[in-house]
Amino acid sequence: MDAHWLFLGFTLLIFCGKTETRLSVKEKLNNEVNPSHRDLAPDFKEKYFKQVLDHFNYNSLGNGTYDQRYLITDQYWKKGSGPIFFYTGNEGDIWEFARNSGFITELAAVQGALVIFAEHRYYGKSLPFGKDSFNIPEVGLLTVEQALADYAVMITELKKELEIQKSPVIVFGGSYGGMLSVYMRIRYPNIVTGALAASAPILSTAGLGDSRQFFRDVTTDFEKFNPACRDAVQGAFQKLNTLAQQKDYKRIQSAFSLCRTPSTQKDIHQLNELLRNAFTMMAMLDYPYSTHFMGSMPAFPVKVACETMLNGTDLMSALRDTVGIVYNSTGQLTCYDLYSLYVECADPTGCGLGFDSYAWDYQACTEIEMCYESNNVTDMFPPITFTEQQREQYCLKRWGVVPRPGWLKTQFWGDDLATASNIIFSNGDLDPWANGGIRKSLSPSLIAISIPEGAHHLDLRESNPADPESVIVARKKESEIIAQWVKEAMKEAS
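Structure (tokenized):
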């Protein structure tokens, strides 16, 4: 693919003794967004903002504060005329998102923007109570509303500090961060001019839609590559289930290279979830080049996975090798530890590991609804339910909280967004989260952009020679819309 585009991109034509370079459509689009993206290396400075602990209860912690981390670069900024591009940090270390959202800095170089990546409270190094942040009741200040208020206060204070009160602010975010960008535009339109929400599942996480949709769409990604891939995965899980019913745990341990022999149905359930999670990760991160975001992944991991499944001599060992793409990318693991590689939580698609996983688990127990299930009929995975009742039981036991279904819909409008404005909803057809978001434009200023060859927020990633044309077209459109928002805001402010 790369060599093909390089060859076409520099085909030379001779006209009247002059040499002219003919660029492919792909390169023309890329250059219009950013003519020199390969030369960009944003010089982020890591800083801390003295943030209010509790924005909504003056009595609970008085005037208590915590140190909220953010990254900032004025490398491309045209002070006085340039906008502010603000990334609404999501469930992880903010450096991870800054390193994997290069389109924002590429766009900043074109539009002369100040760039800020803000870390979400309770993630990375922004821990309000240090090592005690995940104690009860300290964890109770981890809410969407508090996070949005953090961003609103930070934007307002930094604009005042830098004396740029009239500079328009465009917020960006991917996945949960994209949800927060939508919510920022809805909740604080006085502060935020527009939002680019990439791969933001604002409907499914508000309890809207079909609980079977997510794992059905994961399956579809593999089925599209080769229908035999789905059959092989399904067959491997069925063999595992048969051995589990026979309690042939030794054979299961051998087939999957487990560190310890499973001995209970709980262990088998954990194994099934660990295996299913690997396919979720490969579908989400099905980028056309290798990445080190949320782990190391080869180029086109769905393709690699299907080839591994279909070239194996035994279905279960083939399944083991396939999930090894995610869990053993270095090849250094000699066995798989069921309970350290994957932690069951209130998010059936996985919470990750470490402190960040505690934070996301708590959010999935309170405001973020993810009662997704697999059933082995509409998808290729074993039947694993996660009902509202199961969620409530788990959350009460783990965190001492009872979820409030429907709260996100009440707070942030659900699918009733018609009166909002200036939001781009981008989604890739390869992304299992896509159908949990907005797929059709709702008005001239609530714009849906589809990326047929795009995985999870591919459009936010930096330009790459392997990019499909569909993501280059999407970025160009996003760039034009954002430039228009900024122009209109500057005109109103003058």
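Residues 1-25, 35-39 have pLDDT under 50 and may be disordered. The CA atoms of residues 24 and 34 lie 15 Å apart.
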